[in-house]
């Protein structure tokens, strides 16, 4: 279920200095997962127009995403590179052996938790004078997530190891 509201606090023509319009926004999303229970996630925002051609906006929100089925239940996989293998810069510099056969193991995980987040956004909208419908915007987003599931490619792991070796 989803609910959204827009509350105009100050409308045009009220003759308030530096306030052409001011509105508050709010929304909430309710979800019910058989595996993860229920969650309600809110979002609050403000849109302020000090004058007709400029709007300053901001919002705060909380997010939620349940893990998808492949992440939870993917079958176990084990792969092995073919010869001559991969080049590992660390092994090359320490042991003089540059290549080896990499073994990979992957599997689903039924103990994963949902991803949760807290978000902040702020921005400005500037309407271009004398060009109807054209505006320039600049926005900032900050999203902090917890319990994120990620994976790295083999090459990313090797590059990371090499960067740590050089530092």
Number of separate strands: 10
* Average pLDDT figure: 88
Strand percentage, roughly?
over 45%
Q: List the total number of helices.
A: 3
Largest sheet: 6 strands, antiparallel
Report strand order across the widest sheet. Answer: 1-2-3-4-9-10
Gap between N and C termini? 51 Å
| Radius of gyration, taken over Cα atoms and rounded to an integer in Å | 25 Å
Give the low-confidence spans: none
What is the N-to-C succession of helices and strands?
A: EEEEHEEHEEEEH
- Shape type: elongated
SS content category:
mainly beta
Bin the helical content: 10-25%
Task: Describe this protein's structure.
- It is elongated and about 75 Å long.
- The strands form 3 sheets. Strands 1-2-3-4-9-10 form a 6-stranded antiparallel beta sheet, with no helix packed on it.
- It is mainly beta and 167 residues long.
- The longest helix is centred in the last third of the chain and has 13 residues, at 154-166.
- It contains 3 helices and 10 strands, in the order ββββαββαββββα.
- Helices cover 15% and strands 51% of the residues.
- The model has no long low-confidence stretch (mean pLDDT 88).
- It starts with a strand and ends with a helix.
- It has helices at 69-73, 89-95, 154-166, and strands at residues 2-10, 21-33, 37-51, 54-65, 77-80, 86-87, 99-100, 103-106, 115-127, 135-146.
């Amino acid at each position: 279920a989803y609910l959204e509201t827009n509350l105009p606090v100050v409308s045009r023509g009220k003759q308030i200095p530096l306030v052409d319009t001011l509105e508050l926004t709010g929304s909430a999303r309710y979800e019910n997962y058989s595996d993860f229970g229920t969650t309600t996630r809110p979002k609050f925002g403000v849109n302020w127009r000090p004058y007709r051609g400029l709007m300053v906006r901001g919002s705060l929100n909380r997010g939620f995403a349940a893990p998808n089925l492949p992440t939870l239940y993917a079958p176990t996989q084990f792969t092995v590179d073919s010869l001559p293998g991969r080049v590992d810069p660390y092994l090359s510099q320490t042991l003089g052996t540059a290549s080896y056969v990499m073994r990979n193991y992957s599997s689903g995980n039924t103990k994963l938790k949902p991803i949760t987040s807290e978000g902040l956004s702020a921005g400005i909208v500037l309407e271009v004078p004398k060009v109807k419908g054209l505006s320039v915007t600049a926005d900032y987003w900050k999203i902090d997530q917890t319990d994120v599931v990620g994976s790295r490619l083999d090459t990313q792991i090797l590059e990371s190891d090499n960067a740590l070796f050089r530092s």
